[in-house]
Amino acid sequence: MRFYRTGHEGFYAAHDPSGELRLLYSDPYETLPAGWEYGRPIDLEQEGLLPPVFPRKIVGIGRNYRAHAEELGNPMPTEPLIFLKAPTSVIGPAATIQLPPESERVEFEGEIAVVMRQRLTQGNAEQARRAILGVTCACDVTARDLQKSDATFARGKSFDTFCPIGPAVQVDADLDDLEVVTRVNGNERQRGHTERMQWGIVDLVVYVSRMMTLEPGDLILTGTPAGVGPLADGDEIEVEVSGVGRLKNKVGVRRT
Question: 220: domain range?
Fold first, then answer.
């Protein structure tokens, strides 16, 4: 089951049992899909889509696919490599990724993003599964030259518009059987699967919760597969995750 955020008000919307998209009267963080209550029909083309969640924090995982670490000439870490990405970098479907003048090489990284349902501190695997709301598509846009020059990833990962997410949250996803595909201008550039991750989704949630409390709506970006590359003005990037749909964003130059 998927839910969206739509309209200027940011209402939830979801498909009812007949398949029709309607306003969602229930809070998906509080009520499981079997108990959802629906309102009037929704036309997404007229209403528009917002980011499906507005996280308080975004936790990124680096080098979770061995082939991606190898393509950048990086060693595989012995435990998950954590970084933080500014929540103000979030944009939704159809919004424009803006290339900043501070960077000469901005790259795409298509990823599976985990959305938290419940607060989790120092959780175990069973608690982590219960605390996960679902998954969505994300693009961990990265100023690669700045990432390489800085001691931390913060600047290169956190420019405004550098975290497109959406279009929906899939709340009944099989966390062990998900695929992510990235296309640029219609051409496939990345394809990854959870089975090729160094650390699985539940393991990542458990690990992150040891260091920091995870709150409802927080995002964990689970790493990108091989095939990353540069973005240019006028590009269209598309990230697709099993069951979620396709997140599409244009690329433009930030005007100062």
Answer: 51-253
The single-letter code of the amino acid at 8 is H
Q: Contact 116/28 with Cβ under 8 angstroms?
A: no
CB 40 within 8 A of CB 72: no
Q: How many domains does the chain have?
A: 2
Are 82 and 126 in the same domain? yes
pLDDT (tens digit per residue) in 118-146: 999 999 999 999 999 999 999 999 999 99
The pair of three-digit structure tokens given for residue 18, joined into one six-digit string: 């007949």
Rounded distance between C-alpha atoms, residue 243 and residue 180, angstroms: 10
Contact 248, 182 (CB under 8 A): no
Of 9, 24, 48, the residue at which a domain comes to its end is 48
- Which tokens go with 223? 């790493």
pTM for this model (two decimals): 0.96
